[in-house]
Amino acid sequence: MEVRRTVPVTLNVDSHDAALLEDTVDQFLWAAQYVIDHAFDGEYVTTSKTTLHDNTYDDVREATDLHSNHVQSARNKAAEACKGVVERWKQGKKASKPQFTNPHLVYEKRSATFYDEYVSLATVDGRIEADYALPENPDGTPHQQYLFNDDYDITSAELHRQHGEWQLHICCTADVEIDTPAQATTENGTVLGVDLGVNQLAVTSTGRFWTGNEFNHWRREYEKRRGDLQECGTRWAHETIQSVGRKQKGRFTQTLHRISNELVAEARENGCTVIAFEDLTDIRERTGASWGHKWAFNRLYEYVEYKAEAHGLTVEQVNPKDTSRRCSECGFTHPDNRDGTHFECLKCEYQNDADYNAAKNIGLRYLRQHQTGADGGAPVGVRLNSGTLNVNGDYSPADSSARTGVHAESPPL
Question: What percentage of the chain carries pLDDT values higher than 70?
């Protein structure tokens, strides 16, 4: 199957080249809007790329200094936007004429050439060369896994300007064979439950913990340094804040890639076919997490999702309601069951780490939502570190012949 990955790469651009990119983006947006206006100029909205090309290409070429490929890309963007509006109308939904205001620019193979350390980009006044601003250690990052991987081909890219920086979102594709676990087509498939939090970034139902100490330390250090620099109010301080921010984001991203790799490996080693997370929608309100943590949770989920796909694993989110208060042994739910990091059921007296108990409940909730008696291929249990727990709360010891790399000890109390 074809796998598509988008790798964001920050570009080092001097003031002269930045001005050229700004002019190119402005003219690209004008071209796309010109096509949009033409498409809506009549009784019906024109969505045909061929018709729009015939009616607007010469006008745009004459009015702008855009590369011919950029003119075509602007037309394609406009046509897709028009199709989206028409589709919403067909569904009885409201939609108005699109307006292109977000600064971006589409690059295809004829308007961009990619090298190991830099990229050559077409502008309204010739080409420029921009170096990649890569992480200090790219091991395990998307740059190494996709951008610099000979198995992946670069097909296109989109240039964006965010927070004063130019960033190229490079699309890489490859034909890969899905490595599907043997359990995926049997009734023995299991679920790996994952709980996310501030003190422990991730905890699995198999008893694997990824502490948030390092992440929290560097986040506090960055916020303190940023606050000190903001008090200076100088241009140097502003540029330093951006430089520190890039470095910290690279550090966090590298950490999240490592954790996501280990989460997927944990699922594969334990014969799981599904990785279940809690719904991330209101996770800040539930956990008291910062914006930085919310960003980390979303990135971690995205990384696990696309990495699991390459191994034939499914990644889902479930309703997190009461997963931290519910006893994973007897099902009794009470707010006083949890006290900080400790869980003790007021009914059956089961005790364990609170995040580990929540991870089991997340896995059990997925089972309850998806398991049916008629579906022999549905997962039948939540994978623990020493066996499985089924939807009725019945525990089955692990079959050591069916798994590898399984923890022998029980989760800490």
Answer: 77
The span from the CA of 341 to the CA of 289, in Å, is 15
Chain centre to alpha carbon of residue 277: 14
User: 403 near 269, Cβ under 8 Å?
Assistant: yes
Among residues 133, 114, 131, which one has the least CA distance to residue 249?
Answer: 133
* 185 three-state secondary structure: helix
Can you tell me which residue has the tokens 């992440």?
Answer: 215
Contact present, 29 and 36 (Cβ < 8 Å) = no
Q: What is the pLDDT of residue 109?
A: 87
- How many CB atoms are located within 10 Å of the residue 39 CB? 27
Contact (CB, 8 A) for 268 and 183 = no
Count of alpha carbons within 13 angstroms of residue 185, beta-carbon side: 3
Average pLDDT score, the chain: 80
- Could you give the 3-state DSSP secondary structure of residue 405? coil
Q: Which of 272-286, 372-386, 393-407 has the lowest mean pLDDT?
A: 393-407
Instruction: Using the predicted structure, report yes or no on whether residue 399 has a pLDDT greater than 70.
Output: no
Task: Sort 387 into a burial class: Cβ within 10 Å, 0-12 / 13-18 / 19+.
Answer: middle
- Mean pLDDT, residues 344-368 taken together: 88
C-alpha–C-alpha distance, residues 362 and 325, integer Å: 12
Residue spans of beta strands (DSSP E) within 108-205: 112-114, 118-123, 126-133, 153-162, 165-175, 190-196, 200-204
Q: What whole-number distance in Å separates Cα of residue 2 and Cα of residue 84? A: 25
**Which has the closest alpha carbon to 214: 246, 244, 258?**
258
The percentage of residues in the chain with a pLDDT greater than 90, rounded to a whole number, is 30
Q: Got the DSSP string for 74-125?
A: HHHHHHHHHHHHHHHHHTT---------S-EEEE-TTTEEE-SSEEEEEEBT
**pLDDT the model gives residue 186:** 36
Contact criterion met (CB below 8 Å) for 64 and 31 = yes
